[in-house]
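User: Okay, second chain of the day. Same drill as before: sequence in, structure tokens out.
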Amino acid sequence: MKKVVLALVLSSLSFGTAVAAASPALVEAKRLYAQGQYFSAARYAYSASQESASEKSDANATITLSLVRAGLWNSATYFFIQTLQSGDRAAIRKVLTATEVILARVGPDLLRDYLIRNTKYEDYDAINRSAYLFSLGKAAILKDDMNRALEYLNQVKGESRLYPFSLEIRGTALSIQGRVEEAIDDFRDCQKYAPLVITELDLDSPRYRSQTNESKDLVARCTADEARAWYQGEKFEEAEKAYDRIPKASRVWPEILFEQAWNAFAKREFNRTLGKLVTYKAPALDFVFNSEVEVLRAQTYLSLCLYDDTQKAIDDFNSRYTDIGREVKHFVEANATNLDAFYQLGARTLKDARNTKDPIGQLANRFVRGPYFVDLAAQDASLEKERGVIQGFARMTGANGNSGLSAFLTEVLKWRRKTIHQLGGAYVKNSLIDHHSVLVADFEKISFIRLEMLGRAKDKLIRKTMSAKAEDEERTRGVVRPSRKDNQMFWTFNGEFWNDELGDYIFGLESECGK
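Assistant: Same drill. Structure tokens below.
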């Protein structure tokens, strides 16, 4: 953080170049900036930008850095983009000294395309170049160009706030390429360097608390990523150890229970699989919406040849998800061109109780409570506070709030709200489409399971007339008894769910295969 602040200070000193050619308003703006009167500096620079087209890019750069130092991040973003689009290399390089601190506040998605289109590698200093490389890397992943993504992400500096995030997405790229061991190293380093995201020095500030939670969330996500990589490499014991390190209070824990169940299924520990899945019936987790849970439950009962239980899981799936699938499809089609409707759905879901009765809200719960949308919603909420700060600055400096910079910033904040709603709306829309596709695929899976179950049930009747040798061969499809961990004891389940036991249940069913 100190390096970033130093970069901003140095950029302010560079304002002294070409002062003789500047207009009085721009000269005064730079003088006020040097004295720490940032809002007044932005006002004079804005006046200069309106009076002289030749000074507009330099003035916008001055406004950008002044608003950054004043803590008006949303307003600064607009002038940051305007400067990037000016094509003035000197002005562009001035504002790029604030790239990383702006990205930390408004996220990379808003600025990524502007950075890629309007800046060059040599425009950046060492720290802020990492923000540029991170943006290029993420863009390459979105284009499914993993080699190019790795080329960029490998250059992100270890002291950058974005470094742990770059480790996470670099590990993802390596996993996609099948380079499992390298991916695991990155996910472990991500956990190690997650504290780098905490740049706020005031331990009592809301910003510090937010960054601390962000760091903890990143550790949990990268631990889950490590477990998935172990699973991908068919190292199921190592995957289970990684999953077990994720705290139950973590935001990702309710989702990874399902992944743990699959890990147990891969080891043919079907009773442990069912134990993980039954946790979703606990009142504390009744908000979780995951159609694949019932599919895996049905598949597990089928693997134990418990056909009545398999049929019940199939019936539960059809009962819960048939109508929801239709409603999601209708909502997406009805609002296909209205991203704000999707944003409002996400915002409404975020405010509602987790155990909402709204079926679309139940599905949206799977992704709107994640860090991406939560951060966008927080930015949206911060706009009114920033508007109030601007009005306060205007009163302190004697400015007219209905004209000049203050009035223009009101319009800027409207633009900023629109960008937030577009990004958030696109995220919600795409997530709904993706989850609906999964739901459709799960209906196909459940149909295949039903057909397989009927076929096996028929074979079971025929098997009564089969030879003893054929029956012995069928019995080899047994169930592996799960090993007890050091922190586990076997107790009879009495129908009550205790928070400290969630995720640790194991069934005691015997396989009916071959009987």
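The chain has three domains: 1-124, 125-246, 274-515.

User: Thanks, on to the next one.
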